[in-house]
Each structure stands twice: as structure tokens, then as C-alpha cells.
Amino acid sequence: MIVKKGGKILLIERKIPPFGFAPPAGHLDESESFESAAKRELKEEVGLDAMDLKLIAEGRKENKCSRPQGSWHYWKLYEVSVRGEVDHSRREAKSVGWYSEEEIALMMVRTKEYLEKRISESDWEENPGIEPVWVEWFEEIKLVSSQ
Fold first, then answer.
1. pLDDT of residue 66 exceeding 70
2. Which one of 49, 60, 62, 98 is CB 3.0 to 4.6 Å from 8, fit for a cystine?
3. Is residue 14 exposed (0-12), middle (13-18) or buried (19+ Cβ within 10 Å)?
4. Residue 19 in contact with residue 122, Cβ under 8 Å?
């Protein structure tokens, strides 16, 4: 879910793999719709209630996840208007915050350095950039560019 406020985008720093900063997101539970999952995950991860969901992109992306043999996902990205106060899940997130496009672009550069093996796994875990799959999404939906 892409949540914006005052020109900034809400990101969490993941506590469990895959490490990195990312918008709130998650898996569908059995027989759950994408929309229901989006609302549930937003509430679970950052304590916010989704008011409106606007589908902005969808598609398959290769990416590892914490689920056994999880190597890809079919995504639906929503721009979401919310109500409530941010209160992140201590189980899933190290931190949560609002980031400018410029700050996100710098984190995307770090991700590209990590993918080029110029940053070690331990350094990445301690100080990650944007979760790799989100670099793809941000560039595809033209939300932020690391160029």
C-alpha cells in the first residue's frame, strides 16, 4: 500500500527477511481478496485504517520472502487514504517513518549497490536500503527514481 502524507511516503524497516525499507504489504490469507488483505496488513503493520483503495499497478515479480519456497508473488499495489495514528508492529518492523522522494531515491541507490555485491549481507541487514522488489515497483509506477 502506498500511503502519502505531506509529500512523503510511509515506509517500514522490515525486521524479518527480506530486509529493507518498504511500504506496508503482505500475503493473502486463504480465500481472502486482495482488498481485504491490503486493509488487514495495513492495520497489522502500521495501525492505520484504510479508507479508500485505488489500484495503481499489478503483476508478477520475482522476489524471495519469508514463506517456504517463496520466490515470487503476484502483486496488486494500491494508493491508500487512511485514518488513525501510526503504531507499527514490533514483531514485523524495526521502525516506521515518512520519507521524502529524495530520501527514498538515496535508499534505492544503496539497494542497487547491494545487488551489485558492493555491500555485504551483514552491512545490508544493519543498514538496508529499499527492499529490492520495491525498487522495481517504485520505478515502474514512476513514484521514485534512483536515476
1. no
2. 98
3. buried
4. no
CA 32/CA 141 separation, integer angstroms = 25
Tell me the per-residue pLDDT of 106-120, one tens digit each, with 9 for 90 and over.
999 999 999 999 999
Measured distance CA(33)–CA(132) in Å, rounded = 25
Choose which CATH entry (3.90.79.10, 3.90.1170.50, 3.40.640.10, 1.20.1600.10) describes domain 4-140.
3.90.79.10
| CA 110/CA 15 separation, integer angstroms | 18
List the one residue out of 107, 38, 105 whose CA is nearest residue 77.
Answer: 38
State the cell numbers at 93. Answer: 518492523
Measured CA to CA, the distance from residue 9 to residue 69 in angstroms comes to 30
d(CA 84, CA 138): 25
Q: Are 59 and 67 in contact (CB under 8 A)?
A: no
The residue whose grid cell reads 527480506 is: 18
For 28-49, the pLDDT digits (tens) are: 888 899 999 999 999 999 999 9
What pTM did the predictor assign?
A: 0.92
Grid cell of 36 as nine digits: 481485504
